[in-house]
Each structure stands twice: as structure tokens, then as C-alpha cells.
């Protein structure tokens, strides 16, 4: 599959470089290819999370079913399932016989494409139990290390029942399978369903909803304005808001550069800087205060969000001794009920950068798909601008063709890099 695709990609560049063909005709053909037949490749790694069982043809069977579903939906993308399931296990060190590596006789799964297609049509997603798992991200600082292109992968684990764990940070789904599902030859179907309906849900959903590249925002500024009675805001509250927003900013940083700033104004003066009163496509403003609840709700027509201190349980014991001392410490360190405010702000930021609401908490998964589809949309926009221009820019066509070649040749594209490149090409067209 890779050979003809690579040849087709190289032919675009060779035609541009060496043959006396019409640049405009080449641009038209390339536009048609990008918008309807762009065979973008993506590796999906299939791994095991324990010793489990060995499947000699599981990945091949799942690949056949996945290809069938994509073909039926007329989706040109190529998802290559990479089989990383070990074919043997290392013998434990405390066993004193040879050979050191024991080759296992695998469980044979007899799969015919026709049978798997029928099975895929009759089973429903409700047969799989779905759970969300939350893990702490490996790094909160997006600029601390160079971006590493993330991998899509499925982790298989032998368990008592079939279930799915959706990772909240990595591009990963854990699928547990049971011996029962092996005997019924259902594992290939479940694997295909997990890939198509969960791991690739954002990518496949966006294929049918073309993005307007003019709506892409490369930079977003987020202002938090504390409209306080004394012109001061609690540092602990400010730190909590900043930590939450910087985590979100780090997650979307490959896609959109986000700058978070804090401002403090005296609410009693009933005025705020004009620049902070209105949201724009590239700026969001959030006003809050921790005092004057029920007295001040707006400033120059802008709503103020009241953030209240956390309520501690009433202390009814004798006001002396260790218990009272501990209560006073908790009182001094108590925070603010800012979770709802931060959540609303995060939702507004996601909406501003175009992240769709698909019921998926994994921001990284959404970001990868958004970058991919905005890149494709941007390529189409640049080619359309080329064709509409009075003077045809052959040099820009060469750059677009090179980028298309690069995308086709890769199995795991750096969409952040490609998107930035397309954005620069599009800016020069406007």
C-alpha cells in the first residue's frame, strides 16, 4: 500500500520540478486529491499490558475489519495496525530447565472477513463496559522539552470481563478481554470497535465536518481580572487558577499558543480597562471577585463571578488545646471554591480554539485531530487561493506539493509542525 502512495506523491513533485505541465492544472488536481482522496497514514500500535495470551492473527483480523468499515464510509485515511504482541515469553529465572525462552503454542483465531463483517453489524457497543481512567500527565511544562510526536496505541490485558479504559492524557485505550471472548472469537471485533469508535472517534468525526481554516486561531490570550474591594486578590486563589489554566495551556500548546495573564482592579471605582471589557476571537476575559457578594454583580455591564471561601465545619469544642490549634491552621490555609469558575473558563477556552464537545476528556486526542484536519483544510485553502489569484504563484505550489509529499510519506506525522507551515503559507496568500 505504501509503495503506490509514495509513487503517487513523488509524481506530484517530479511533475512540478521536471515536466512542462500547466501549474494551474496541477494545482487543481492536487486540490481535488487533498479534499477527497488524501491517503494520510497513521500507525496504531497494538500492545499487551500483561503476559496474557498470544494471538497469531488478531491484528490481521482487526486490520481487515477496520479497512472494511473505512471503505464503507468512503474514508481515504490509512490506519496501519502495528503488531507488537510478543510471540514468546521469557522463562522466569527461578526455573532450572532449558531452553531459556519458551515458545508458546498460540490460541488460533479463525477469522474470515465475511464472518467478521456480519458480526460487526449484529453486535452493539453496549456489550463493552466503558470507564474513564485519570493519570497525572508526565510534564506540565510544554516548553521544557522538544515536542515528541505522540503514538496512538491499544493495550490488551487479560481479565474476567471485556471492558474499556479511556486514558485521559495519552492517545491510548486499554481493552481487557476474557477467556470467554477468546473462545467466541470476539476479540478481533472488540479490538476493531475500540479503535474505530473510541480511539479514532475525533479523527473520523471531523472527516465529515470540513473545518474552515479562516477560523483557526494560532494564539489565544486569556485574562483573569480580579475586581476586588481593596484592589488585592488572594494569592492562593490566583495560584490555583493559574495552575489549572497552565495545565490546559500546555495540553493545547502544540495547536494553539496560549498566554495566561492576571489583572487586579479596584471594583469600588466601577471602571475597568476598555481592552478587558470585550472578548475577541483571540482574547478571552474572565472577571471574578471574592467579596461584596450580593452587592456588586457587574462592572460596566460585565458580569462578575463571585468566588466564595471554602466553608469549614463549625468548631464547637473548647477554644483551647491541640484541636483548636489545628482548626485555626485549617482556617488560615483554607482555599476558595473556584472549581466551577475554573471549569467554566476551561470550557470557554476549548470552545474558543474550536475543540469539539464529543464527551471526551482527553484533550490531547482532540488536539491531534484538530491539528490534522486544520492542516488539510489549510492546504485546500492555500490551493484555492492560488487558483483564484490573478498571478499564479508557482513557488507556493511547490511548497504545498512538498508538504503533501511529506505527509503521505510519514506514518506518524508531526501535525503541529505541519499546521504552523500551512498557517504561514496561508498568511502570505491573504
TrEMBL record:
The keyword Signal appears for this protein: yes
Signal peptide: 1-17
UniProt KW keywords: Signal
Name of the protein described by the UniProt record: CIC11C00000004679
Organism: Sungouiella intermedia
Amino acid at each position: 500500500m505504501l509503495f503506490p502512495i509514495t509513487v503517487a506523491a513523488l509524481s506530484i513533485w517530479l511533475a512540478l520540478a521536471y515536466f512542462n505541465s500547466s501549474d494551474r492544472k496541477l494545482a487543481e488536481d492536487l486540490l481535488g486529491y487533498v479534499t477527497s482522496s488524501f491517503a494520510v497514514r497513521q500507525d496504531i500500535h497494538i500492545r499487551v499490558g500483561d503476559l496474557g495470551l498470544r494471538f497469531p492473527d488478531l491484528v490481521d483480523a482487526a486490520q481487515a475489519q477496520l479497512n472494511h468499515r473505512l471503505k464503507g464510509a468512503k474514508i481515504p485515511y490509512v490506519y496501519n495496525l502495528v503488531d507488537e504482541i510478543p510471540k514468546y515469553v521469557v522463562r522466569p529465572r527461578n526455573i532450572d530447565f532449558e531452553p531459556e525462552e519458551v515458545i508458546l503454542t498460540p490460541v488460533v483465531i479463525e477469522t474470515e472477513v465475511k464472518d467478521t463483517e456480519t458480526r460487526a453489524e449484529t453486535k452493539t457497543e453496549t456489550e463493552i463496559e466503558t470507564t474513564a481512567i485519570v493519570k497525572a500527565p508526565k510534564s506540565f511544562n510544554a516548553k521544557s522539552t522538544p515536542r515528541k510526536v505522540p503514538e496512538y496505541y491499544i493495550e490488551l490485558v487479560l481479565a474476567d470481563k471485556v471492558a474499556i479504559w479511556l486514558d485521559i492524557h495519552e492517545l491510548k485505550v486499554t481493552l481487557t478481554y476474557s477467556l470467554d471472548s477468546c473462545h467466541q472469537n470476539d476479540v478481533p471485533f472488540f479490538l476493531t470497535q475500540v479503535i474505530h469508535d473510541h480511539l479514532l472517534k475525533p479523527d473520523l468525526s471531523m472527516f465529515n465536518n470540513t473545518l474552515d481554516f479562516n477560523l483557526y486561531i494560532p494564539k489565544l490570550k486569556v485574562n483573569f481580572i480580579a475586581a476586588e474591594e481593596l484592589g488585592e486578590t488572594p494569592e492562593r486563589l490566583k495560584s490555583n487558577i493559574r495552575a489549572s489554566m497552565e495545565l490546559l495551556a500546555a495540553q493545547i500548546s502544540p495547536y494553539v499558543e496560549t498566554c495566561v495573564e492576571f489583572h487586579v482592579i479596584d471594583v469600588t471605582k466601577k471602571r475597568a480597562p476598555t481592552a478587558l471589557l470585550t472578548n475577541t476571537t483571540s482574547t478571552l476575559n474572565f472577571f471574578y471577585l471574592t467579596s461584596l457578594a450580593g452587592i456588586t454583580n457587574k462592572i460596566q455591564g460585565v458580569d462578575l463571578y463571585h468566588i466564595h471561601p471554602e466553608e469549614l465545619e463549625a468548631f464547637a469544642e473548647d477554644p483551647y488545646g491541640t484541636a483548636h490549634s489545628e482548626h485555626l491552621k485549617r482556617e488560615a490555609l483554607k482555599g476558595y471554591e473556584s472549581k466551577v469558575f475554573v471549569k467554566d473558563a476551561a470550557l470557554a477556552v476549548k470552545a474558543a480554539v474550536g475543540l469539539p464537545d464529543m464527551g471526551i476528556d482527553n484533550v490531547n486526542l482532540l488536539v491531534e485531530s484538530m491539528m490534522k484536519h486544520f492542516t488539510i483544510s489549510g492546504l485546500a485553502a492555500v490551493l484555492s487561493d492560488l487558483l483564484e489569484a490573478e498571478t499564479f504563484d508557482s513557488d507556493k505550489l511547490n511548497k504545498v506539493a512538498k508538504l503533501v509529499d511529506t505527509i503521505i510519506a510519514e506514518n506518524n506525522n508531526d501535525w503541529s509542525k505541519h499546521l504552523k507551515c500551512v498557517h504561514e503559507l496561508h498568511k502570505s496568500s491573504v
